[in-house]
Amino acid sequence: MSTSEIARPGGFLGELNSRHHHRALTVFMVIVVAHWAEHIVQAIQIYGFGWPTSKARGVLGMPFPWLISQEWLHYGYALVMLVFLWVLRHGFAGRSRQWWNLALGIQFWHHIEHLLLFIQAQSGWRLAGQKVPTSIIQLLVPRVELHLFYNTIVTIPMIVAVVLHRRASAAERKLTGCSCGVPRRPVLAAS
């Protein structure tokens, strides 16, 4: 779909992707980057500090260790992220939309992997006779490294998309109705 073919949604989605896109995108990206940072911290705990995987729980997992072991929580996050990638994509046009769509496609697969883990945790069935819930790619790559990789390859295209989006041309802004890239007027101090 070319930039000139992007259709703007109406109603709530239209408002979210135009007038409120900047705020919604900012909140979403803060959450996504914080989640990615949790995976980075976990990798540092394992490879930098030499902690065993069972003790490396990121920042939030240290005071709340149950966060790490709850497949429903991981699946819920993957699903919510997929939904917001879909919902907020209407505010993007041109190259930024291509990068956002790349992140959406990768997150769709990441969501499938988490769905598979969630089903195993709920049913007791295990993929390929494994002892614990295991995703498809996890048969080849350990879970900590795999999820750091997944979160990295989803987050980086999102960051590229946001940077390109904030530098959108006037034509792209007109197509989406989004004001993210519009330079803010400086506030003049009263004399």
UniProtKB/TrEMBL annotation:
Keywords: Membrane, Transmembrane, Transmembrane helix. It comes from the Bacteria. The chain crosses the membrane at residues 25-52, 72-88. This is Transmembrane protein. It comes from Amycolatopsis vancoresmycina DSM 44592.
